[in-house]
Amino acid sequence: MNKPTRIAFIGNSPPRQCGIATFTGDLSHAMTESAADVSASIIAITDEDQSYAYPPDVIFEIRESEPEDYVTAARILNEGRFDAVSLQHEFGIFGGPDGEFILTLLSHLRVPVVTTCHTILADPTPSQHHVLKKVAAHSNRIVVMAERGRLLLTQVYGVAPEKIDVIAHGIPDRPFHDPELAKVERGYAGRPIILTFGLLSPNKGIEVVIDAMPAILEQNPRALYIVLGATHPTLLRKQGDTYRDSLRHRAEKLGVDHAVEFLNQFVDLPTLLDFIAMCDVYVTPYLDEAQMTSGTLAYSFGMGSAVVSTPYWHALELLTDARGVLVPFGDASATGKAIGDLLGDDERRMAMRHLAYDAGRSMIWSHVAVLYLESMAKARESFRPKLVSDLVSLRITRPAQRTALKLGHLHAMCDDTGIVQHAVFSVPDRSHGYCVDDNARALLLSSLLSKAAEIGITDRMTASFAAFVEHAWNPDTGRFRNFMSYDRRWLEDEGSEDSHGRTLWALGSCALSDTDAPRRRWASALFAKAMSVTLDFRSPRAWAFTLLGLNDYCTANPHDPHARMLRVRLAESLMDLERRVSKNGRRWFEEGLSYENARLSQALIVTGLATKVSAFVDTGLATLQWLMVQQTAEAGHFRAIGTEGFFEIGEPPKPFDQQPVEATATVSACLAAYDATSDKHWIELANSTFNWFTGSNDHGISLVDPETGSCRDGLHADRANENRGAESVLCYLISSIEIGRVHQAHTPVLPRVVFRQFS
């Protein structure tokens, strides 16, 4: 097999004190020791406001809340000639909602990925489901540490079972030991020892064992319960040692404080193994069954300890066939009886220890390292470079394009000021000048290209779009101007509410995804200044555009309370409109339809996913479903709401004039609906809507020129509009980028859009 020799790990790393850091360090060392030609490096995730003296094998440090660090890490890995990447995934260690920042790194990465899932939830939130599903899609292999993990990944997250490897948590290779000898060395000779170790936090169930100690002491008066481990650093920063203090007070109140010893330290591996060696019973009293793996359990079990545990998933698999004892969650009586009985039955305890030790021989790190190398070899065999040309469809209504998507017409429409509004045929029409609407769209396109690791818009072009937006800001009114003449004169002091909202949307996307860190900070700062005025707006589209901007801005700036408040207020405003207007089977926000209708539904869907408010998602999906009926022709193809019927109350939509902006809004909204539901029906609707550009429309003609990347301005009743202005080309390019993003999580037949290879 194609064995990797140069491996990079992504995860927490020692000296950070947590289980994943320990796992990353142990696995990387085991793999380098497994063969002389294997080398390992680590990309370490550093938690907020902390710093660590990392060892030399840590080649880069990702600050968990800094999006640009994830992009930089991907570049380091891409340029470092690594054969494979081992990602340690846990929702809480990466930045963004449910750790979604790691998706940025994965989307830029061009190296085979093997992801170890440390947490797999049976009942995830929509956001958690989305993040883990995307991580799995970006990964060539997935490693779980228990069969339950394989089952959940396939049934809950839709991961193909043949993509999953079950590899146990590794353990040190130590000989079978005599606890009495180890007790002498540590000064505990003659005492029955009960041990729990690990970072201390309320979900560990220590209080249950303390409550069980009176019953244990009745049978074994000299028994000692040792709680070994420092308070979890995050808990310590937020609450100090109040939890540990509460446990001490609990022991004192029960009169068992003499039999409970707290060792508040994060011990090194040799010390830890000494404590495990001297314990008679190891106990893991976790309170939640959704514990996919436990390093503490693996270590103790594999070294041949007699284990009493609650039946969380990892314990259920390890402690079968008399290899341990399971007790109900939170049941102090059952816990006390199980521990007491084991301490009083040397023969049974010894038999259990031998069974556990024998089973643990397959878990030693040297064996686990070989299994990981085999998984990485499989990943390398199945890996292929990311091509957006992979995102193609044979199901099209016109001959397949054979040329790469071009940006020639977009370049022709731009100058040092920005992008010109209109064109006469394909010739830029300078008489109409510029507008912030189109320059904001151009900035949004640039951010989408950056997010997809694509190039094509130069940094100079992006800078001109950003400069136009900056110049459009009028601090005297707190609003963006919109229209500018070709001789660079503003034609108004403030633009429309919709243009203000669209500009915020572009700024939010730039703040999260632009490749230039200073420009991201500029976008965040200007967004923060310009967002509050939207509370006074009355346009539902301005609310929707602002919400779409807030979706990215809040990811890049998660600690801005004003943005979080604004997001909820604007979403509630849309919800209120829908409640007041919807009736008699009509699910919409207004009495009539107009332009970019689907953005209203999209805004509620993405906001609901981000804020975990299911009502927002449900309303967004219901209104989008209703809208899709209005936008579907009798023949089944997409029919954009025509401009001739805008805002007509009580009338069916007019079929003409149809404009690209409607198709683009609908593609985006359908993809958001797929993210929320994983229902492939929405992928199909996004496909059919995109095909409107390429000929699946009322006139059966393509609106795009694949040689130049231009797009006609729409469909009249009798012909296509031959002009090819900024809005049209930008909408077509934005849809082309967005329709491709579903490939990583899904393999449907997609519209025929051919890009060059990522570079």
What does this structure look like?
- The protein is an alpha/beta fold and 759 residues long.
- The chain has 27 helices and 22 strands.
- It has a 7-stranded parallel β-sheet, sandwiched between helices. It has a 6-stranded parallel β-sheet with strand order 10-9-8-11-12-13, with helices on both faces.
- Strand 5, helix 4 and strand 6 form a beta-alpha-beta unit.
- Helix 19 packs antiparallel against helix 20, helix 23 packs parallel to helix 25 (660-677) and helix 25 (660-677) runs antiparallel to helix 26 (680-690).
- It is elongated.
- The two termini are 28 Å apart.
- Mean pLDDT equals 89
Strand order of the largest sheet: 3-2-1-4-5-6-7
Segments where pLDDT lies below 50 for 5+ residues? 387-404, 743-759
Report the helical percentage.
40-55%
For the biggest sheet, the summary is: 7 strands, parallel
Structural class from helices and strands? alpha/beta
Secondary structure: number of strands: 22
Oligomer: single chain
State the end-to-end CA separation: 28 Å
Beta-strand portion reads 5-15%
Helical segment count: 27
Principal-axes geometry comes out as: elongated
How much is the radius of gyration in Å? 30 Å
In short:
The chain is built from 27 helices and 22 strands. It is an alpha/beta fold and 759 residues long.
Features:
759 residues; alpha/beta; seven-stranded parallel β-sheet; elongated; disordered C terminus
